[in-house]
Amino acid sequence: MLSSILTTGCLSRGFNRLKLISDSNHVEKIANFHPAGSSKTLNCLYSTIVGADRWEDGTPSQFSNTPPKDARVVICGGGIMGAAVAHQLAQRGWGQHTVLIERGRIGEGNPWHFSGLLGELKPTHSQVLLAQTSLELIRDLHAKGLPTGWKQTGSLNLARTRDRMTMFRRMKSQSVAWNVECEIVTPEKCKELCPLIDIGDVVGGLWIPNDGVGNPNAFCHSLVQESLEKGLTVAENCTVTRVIQKDGRIKAVETSKGTVECVYFVNCAGFWARQVGQMSEPYVKVPLHAAEHYYLHTKPIPELGEKFPVVRDLDGHIYFRENEGCLLAGGFEAKAKPAYEDGEIPISTAERKLLPDWDHFHPLLEELLRRCPSLQDVALERLSNCPEAFSPDCKWIIGEAPEIQNYLVAAGMKTVGMSAAGGVGRAIADIITQGYSTVDLHELDISRFLGLHNNRKFLRDRVREVPGLHYDLNYPFHEFRTGRNLRMSPIFPALKEAGAVFSQVMGYERPAWFDKKNAADERGSPKFRIATTNGFGKPHWFDHVQSEYENCRERIGMSDYSTFTKIDLWSKGNEVVDLLQYLCSNDVDQPVGSIIHTGMHNRHGGYENDCSLARLSENHYMMIAPTVQQARCKAWIERHLPPGGRVSVSDVTSMYTAICIMGPFTRIMLSELTDTDLSPKSFPFFTCKELDVGLANGIRALNLTHTGELGYVLYIPNEFALHVYTKLMEAGQKYGIRHCGYYAMRTLRVEKFFAFWGQDLDTFTTPLECGRMWRVKFDKKVDFIGKEALLQQRDKGVERMYIQLLINDHDPDLDLWSWGGEPIYRDGLYCGQTTTTAYGFTFKKQICLGFVKNLHPSGRALPVTNDYVLSGDYEVEIAGIRYPAKANLHSPNLPTKYPDQEREAYKATRDKTDESNLLAYRPNK
Fold this sequence. Notes:
Blueprint: E1 2-6, E2 19-22, H1 25-33, H2 39-50, E3 73-76, H3 80-91, E4 98-101, E5 117-118, H4 125-143, E6 151-152, E7 155-159, H5 162-178, E8 183-185, H6 187-193, E9 204-208, E10 212-213, H7 216-229, E11 233-235, E12 240-246, E13 249-255, E14 258-261, E15 264-267, H8 273-277, E16 289-291, E17 294-298, E18 310-313, E19 318-323, E20 326-331, H9 358-371, E21 380-385, E22 388-390, E23 397-400, E24 407-411, H10 417-434, H11 456-462, H12 492-497, E25 500-505, E26 508-514, H13 542-554, E27 557-560, E28 565-571, H14 575-583, E29 595-601, E30 607-617, E31 620-625, H15 630-638, E32 647-651, E33 656-662, H16 666-671, E34 688-693, E35 696-702, E36 711-717, H17 721-732, E37 738-739, H18 742-751, H19 787-796, E38 800-807, E39 823-826, E40 829-840, E41 845-855, E42 861-862, H20 866-870, E43 874-878, E44 881-888, H21 901-905
Parallel strand pairs: 3-4, 3-15, 4-11, 7-18, 15-24, 27-37
Antiparallel strand pairs: 1-2, 5-10, 6-10, 7-9, 8-9, 12-13, 13-14, 16-22, 17-20, 17-21, 18-19, 19-20, 23-24, 25-26, 27-33, 28-31, 28-32, 29-30, 30-31, 33-36, 34-35, 35-36, 38-41, 38-44, 39-40, 39-43, 40-41, 41-42, 43-44
Helix pairs in contact: 3-7, 3-10, 4-10, 13-18
InterPro entries: FAD-dep_OxRdtase, FAD/NAD-bd_sf, FAO_M, GcvT/YgfZ/DmdA, GcvT/YgfZ_C, GcvT_C, GCVT_N, TrmE/GcvT-like
Protein name: Pyruvate dehydrogenase phosphatase regulatory subunit, mitochondrial
Family: Belongs to the GcvT family.
């Protein structure tokens, strides 16, 4: 048996400092026989001698139940996620009605194959809430004397660069809102907290004292033990073979030990969640792919001590912690190595083992030795290769599947399953027992994916870069490099030739900005360029976006809106009108040709969707919704369809190319290309018509923009898209037409105080809070979803309000920018957070949109009124520095060379009658 391995490099790289120390002569002979062998030789040597990944717990199983013939809930997967869901259901009295099915053994796992890191500071507030819930549950079990492996060690995050410290300061600012205790520390303090590290290249750190570590296997067994006492049925060595639905709802689950009729099915199959998703008809997309992940274990190191903190050297992509007197280290390399590329994942945990690849792990090992030079003299126990499953956007996958009702998924927890399990388990149990989660899950919702995201080759390519995001610098507007050029509108080649630099949303390529100077490669061909924002200050694309912005305001700007979700709804009779009246808070029964902007709400009045409905005929509507809602809003509608197929719903997103033209000369230019009368009397603001443009027909034209500028959005059948685009560009030359990207659109809508779903609005935001009460029609005959909750809120008053903030005393060239998520202070006290931000080119200031609260010293929220908002002095904290800000309840009218009555009269945010304190714009003289 090999007693120790000490390595500072791989044999295949020519390093000769590998030492093999063993009592076995056989080991020494093999090592001497291959003094500079290949990595394959080393891997085989390591696997053969050490037996890495072959550890098996011989403890006899205590579960052998055969599943019953019926239950309310069937959970597939007896790992930590399935155990957490079962535990939460059992705590609510559902234990006797819940069955946990595991194809192997409950909590089966190799002790060499987990990190056990428990941290509460996550990228978003929702993830923080879930992690805090999980930590609370772990502490509770620990206090009861149940094994969890919990130790509060604190975590020390190290920074080597100025940008990393900026990120830490942003996290520290956000921590106030998220109720996370943390502290910015000096390099010297880092050394004091962890004497083992070298701080020669460290510029600072972030210390989170309440973080800790745990044992996932022990935690899993403790959860199941408590659940068993409350009636949970556990079936081990039982395999789910088929998931049966009827009329779009879960009906039963077939297993190797019989069929279980049930009402809910929860896919917690971890590695196999994607395969389990394919066991139903229609199959449920759970886009996951495995990547190799490594854990390095040392022999015992006496000086570590139990309070040794978790250390994350993010710029080195590594972490390490104490584990039973030894050091456990791992990392998230910039380019990961996909596992099981053929899509065949072994059934059992034991069969899932992979040989360690020392060549691949070598860069992380070098970083570990750089941070802790003394480890060169430490004996190593083993390197374990334990693949982990990742989603294509590196976020958890939670929620009800859009394909089948009552089919829930909790998967894609990456390497932090223990940190997420308690919170995610509670969220799933909330959905099952009360119909909704108490935490907004839209960013983690499984319906954020389309079928393209479940393509195995796409997932294989994407998983190469996803793990590295864990420790990457979180710059604004992150863009993936893989899975690109996937969804493209017919005018994509023309946009690329015009200099487009692309961002991607829902797989769709959309221009972020245009830069004609660098549009061609060395051969003169248009090149595909991906947008970047590699900094927290003034971005390199500033001048391009400013020029595009000015064109939209004073001439004509053209933007590709093809990514927006487009859904047609129709019926033979009035069924579609009745359905939309029930789903929507606005009155959709308007004359043909009208455009109705409306919310679709849940029972609490929160936004499930924010959309525009164009009434094309008496019983035919076209819905325009945010891009990220393509699967989600369609599923929401389908869950409420009347029986019998009386209303037809069709996703037509890919059938139409959408071109938005905006600016003061758009009506004149478009009139030259169509015979339709475009005068305000014939084609007024917020109406739609079918037009001919050039030689093309059947174009759905909407007289609106999503930014508050004058203009039209043309929904063009794809076969006519290039023709219409060309005609618009030709006709627009004399009016100064130019291409405009998404970043300019973002600035326009932030200045005009337009809220977007998924950025400003979510499932907990109501129309009363964001100044859209005027779109809610309480007096219409149909009781729409959420009406009662909105009436109660109207009578009681709102506890937060959506406002616009103009930042003062801020130098955009020198100071860090606000990018969203910054805390807002009123009279020196925390009161809210920003949501969307942008630089206002007319105001010449940073502009922040966000929500403010009226918090009692005890933390209790009090009603927020206009007077409360306007009477305070505000500051926005950007990476630890507070800047004074002017609060607006409405966006001020922006000056223009070509004022227009329609443009100036329309405000998306209303219901706030006091406009006396708005900032008056004064141009520089």
